[in-house]
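Reopening this one. Same input as before:
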Amino acid sequence: MKQSTKLFLGIAAFALLLVGAVVAYNALSGQAPPESEQTEQQTFTGSTAAQSAPDFTVTDEEGNEVMLSDFLGRPVVLNFWASWCPPCRQEMPDFDRVHRAPGNEVVFIMVNLTDGARETTATASQFVRDQGYGFPVYYDTMGQAANAYGIRSIPATFFIDGTGKVVSNHVGMLSEQGLLEGIAGIR
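Same output, byte for byte:
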């Protein structure tokens, strides 16, 4: 085969590859909104309709089992965190301040992702004691709560109304103002 024929076939193959890549990119890029349209505030289901909050079992510091359904009838702030997570650590003072506010009838369920390696019950408990936080901490040692809520990134906060419906959620660090707005939506 002549050198010029080989070069022509190589260029044609490369051009075909580029056209295929452009077509594939255009087809796949339409599945996600542009970054400018994405927000951190998300609804749990991706829709505006509230959905039933999945139940789960975690343990308290004494090892007693606690279920989300134990708090049915009261609005709940459900937060997933770990002591090694910098954004979790940054939002904790705001959660503690709002939790301690007089007249706050909202239940705070602060679920520690306790994997037994990176985070243990002892390290999480020590962190909470060292900081002087007053909110109750629960330990997800089996990953049941995290799996029920599809947790892939922390911190993650869910706002659940008294009927047991997830009204909204937020992935990432939540400001005190954002926390208060979420609570206003479940009262």
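So the earlier flakiness isn't reproducible anymore. For the record, Residues 3-35 form one domain.
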